[in-house]
Amino acid sequence: MRLISLFGLTAAEFAYLIQLWPVWNQLIAPAQALNFDPVPAPSLDLSELGRVALTGDFDAISLYTYQQQTESIYSSNGSQAIVTQRPNGDFATTVTSDGFIKSMCPFVMKDGTLAGVIVGGNFTSMGGQETHGVAMYDPNTQSITTLEGLTGSVNAVWCDQETNTVYVGGDFKGGHSTNAIAWVGTAGWSDLPFTGLNGPVKEIRGAPNGNVIFAGSFTGLGNRNTTTLVHKDQQIINLSSANITSGFSSTTNGFDDPHNIVCKVNGQDGAGNTWLLEDNTPGFWNANLSFGFQPTKLRLWNTHQDGRGTQTFRFTAFPNAIMNFTYIDPATGKNTTCDARCPLSNDTKVSYQDFRFVNTVGMSSFRIDISAWYGQGGGLNGIELFQDDIYAFAVADLNEPACATNNFPSNASTTGPWKQTPSYDSNSIYLSANLTGSSTGPDDVSVIFRPDIQQAGNYSVTIYTPGCKQDSTCDSRGIVNVTWSLASTPSPSQPQQTTIYQTNDFDKYDQLYFGPVDVNSDSFRPSVTLRPAANQKEGTSIVAQRVRFVLTNSTGGLNGLFEFDPNQATVDDDFSKSPIDKAAMSLDPGAMLNGLAILGGVIYAAGNVSAPGIKNIFTVNGSNPTALPGAGLNGEVATIFAFEDLLFVAGNFTDTANSSLRGMNNIVIFNSTSQAWQTVGAGVNGRVDTIVPLDLNITTDTPETVIAFSGVFDQINDFDSNPAIPVSGFAIWVPTQQNWQQNLVMQSMAIDGYLSASTNVTGSTPILSGSISSQDINAGDAISLTSDPLRINSLGVKIQPEQPSSSSKRKRVVSGVSGQNTTGAVTGLFYNSGNTNITVLGGHFTATASNGSTLNNLIFLNSTGTITGVASGLDTESVFLSLATQDSVLYAGGTITGKINNADVNGLILYDLVQANYAFPQPPPLEGDNVAVNAITTRPNSRQVYVGGSFDSAGSLPCPAVCVFENQQWSQPGSELGGSVSTFAWQGSSKLLAGGNLTVSGTATSLASYDAKKSKWSALDDAANDVPGPVTALTPANNDGSQFWIAGKNTNGSAFLMKYDGSSFTSIGDDFGDETTIRGLSMMQLSENHDNSDLVGRGMVLLLTGQLDLPNFGNASAALFNGTNFTPFLLSTSRNNPGSISQLFSEKVLSFKNSGGHMAVGLVVLIALACALGAIFLLVVAGVLIERYRRKNEGYIPAPTSYFDKTSNMGRIPPEHLFGRLQQQGAPQL
């Protein structure tokens, strides 16, 4: 294939080619590998804990395995990015843009060198660089090369290696072309022989015969124009709002004001109507407008005041362009040209003269210099400027002036808090609205644009959006809905509304409509309405500037398809020679083709088209369009994609055109082998915009191709035994499973967002575009954790988090100090006794039971995988925050209300896990304004269950903050405690440590200790002064609990983390971001020691869970702290927001071991005492041995061992002989 360029390399173009140096440099630059740096897996040893699980509020979760990995969410503000896959299958964003990316192709040169990936879309910047509609991406260096020269948006790119050419199509201007152009090798932009097309191009494909096919909404070539403008120069440019000045004006009152000649069309002389110069002096008249325009005609009224008048003038468009004109000489009637000295007639019979601009030049300021005059000096009676383009501006003063002679001048009307904004770098001033407070919804804020349409015909309608960088609103820019009414009887197949994302960095325009527009009349007036999209956040800003209408030719010989032969230097006007062009001409006029595909050598085309027996999709067979089964589809097709022998079709349809095939909702497959339609499940419940293939691990570690659909839908429809699934405009079909990924039981990667395009690059993973987030697995709110190797796995429970209503009493949890999220799975435990093995999950969610029923807030998963819940009776708004067991009875606490066995419950329920039923009787309900049970613990070696939270009494028994349940009755542990408890930890068997927002004997503290033997509460020493806020998380740091970690929120809202070593607190510092909430703390054992630390032993690590903002990283749901550094551990997302993890729970309790760090003080004392006693014993033994040796050397002999009979010398002594003296007077003598 050979493309004949129309541009030779001349000296005049040398400067342009120099500008292409960055592109050449890109082509010859050495490649650099795209790196993903792995992170060593933490050496957690979970063997002592048995089964381990984590709960939280997330729907997708990952282990942190690569440095480039983040807990990112996908953008929903209209910006998209180039996306690649990491080695572990996750997706990584590499380069972002400020708009949609619609098409990509690998630009491979003839010699096999990859120049880069050509990217097209409606963006105005990419990778932080200004580039309009198209750019080149280097996948090795992740760099962007701008391809300057286009203004507008690109819909399609097609790379042809054989000719070093990229064909680009869309809705743009570039070079001398519109809507279609080529980028050739290192030479840059080159006009195609036909200089584009007269309507937007939607798709480009290479034909089987080597030609190039363009598809879209066009009727003719760019260099052909068969439309005659009945009303040329039909729009009057408003000079009334211009800043008008003059030089050397007359000093005569009534003739000195340059404004006199604006909006004066009667040519009448006189004060207030005429502007004059000083006598015999050249001068000028200057207008500086607040918008840009391209005038096509100048109309001037000469003055005859007192014999004066202008003889010659010149028109200068600033900065420095003297304009050329053609005009009809009133004296000769001949068409004449002029430039620097254009003449005006002095004939009083000539009311005005028209000067037509030879070149169309954009400007916002101009000057008329008068160089010669009649009589005593020059002057004018009137001036008007006209243009062909039709604009309606949001700022009313920019629309056609009040003096416009037509009946329906362009105008706009507004409602809402609009304010005028300077133009900055934009084409014109515009309106801005900040959506703050009430009455800022779609019904309250709007701009209605009404154009001056004087000729009916096919129009291209575009809306302009000023860039956000110039007015510093990029962080707040929102979304607008644009609707239109352009024909009195609109075609039902034509769309009447669209959504515009206004987050573009620089000025852009979007095409709204291409089709018939009716002329203004008393009964109908075309209009375009801009409103803010619904449900945007407080403080969102939107803008409104202008809408443009351009009349296009309607009889150019084409109808949405054009076949181009690159081997021909010129284009033949006889389009019937092309079977493709001829087939399109057989369709009804106004065909809009959105998609092209080549499958088995057959060309498939689809869009919004019709013909006898054909609806919206067809094949090109010879020179005729051929219908698919059922005559096609009953609605518009947005896109098609060929995969193996299948054609995936998506859009806005529900069935074939003339039959009924159930399940064809917006997505369907055409099997080219069987020539039959196949359903994709039962489709989705809304419009589908894109089809993108990608590789995922589904059933094995080998990736397979799946098909992603993105669009405006929120549900995958139910089919067969598969229920309906709520989604957010994104769904993945797995061809090998003939099912949606969301329906598959097997564990697979989680991906969500919007995919717009993909392309394959040799030697690289596929490159995608869109806005997506991905995590290792799809898992709803609960996962298991295993070590050796370290892995996370879904528990196999389908949980859907449920948001409490704004008026719900569940807000009590938020106002408390529990630190727990109130949606998702908040807490859990493992129960394993006898033949009963149950995993319990509690929180605020809905789940599906094994029998298909819906479960709320508390569920049980047994060893066989069966999922059950509790019987009815509890309010669905209940939230479970804490769990504990005693024997087979589950104690479940939280913000729980309802009735069990016709008895009220509040805060706490009892459930028998073996009997699978509520225990009887239930405890008397807790009482208080906002009852919440945040912590439950069983005293070691006891039947006592301690319940902590926010309440005042249990039944009729006062017991604020903590109450004990034993033998079916409540008791109060001490009387000193008040406030709200968040967490418990035992320090031995008789001391309980409580954290929260507490008081002890009326004194505020965040930590209090209860001595069960003395039944007395006491505040922990120094806690009131050293701990900066309520404690929400607590975990022991040694076996007896004398050392522990705490976390919570400072009074200023920031998170804190501290360790108590038995005598004092040590703070980790203000390392966390402002949005950090620490919800759980757990000490974990390691199989490999880390460096020694005073805070964490070498064989241990502290696990933090919650919603964390880590230093030098960002968002994470769990992190590990080794006493020195924080390392991300788990990353999660929830409904396209950062996820959170509440807590870790395990089957067994960790027993702390010496890991080479500091020992407990008591243990050190015991060891020292043992060493001292051992040393004394050795010294005594050594002394005895030495003494025996000495005596032996000195001649000592053993004493005799036989004794005489001592009893023979002893007699009985009468008692009186011993005690008789005691009765004598006086003291005994010594």
Automatic annotation (TrEMBL):
The keyword Transmembrane helix applies. Residues 908-1153 form the Rax2-like C-terminal domain. It comes from the Eukaryota. Residues 391-551 form the Rax2-like third domain. Residues 232-380 form the Rax2-like second domain. It holds the Pfam family Rax2. One of its GO terms (cellular component) is plasma membrane of growing cell tip. Keywords: Membrane, Transmembrane, Transmembrane helix. The chain crosses the membrane at residues 1159-1186. This is Cellular morphogenesis protein. It comes from Heterodermia speciosa.
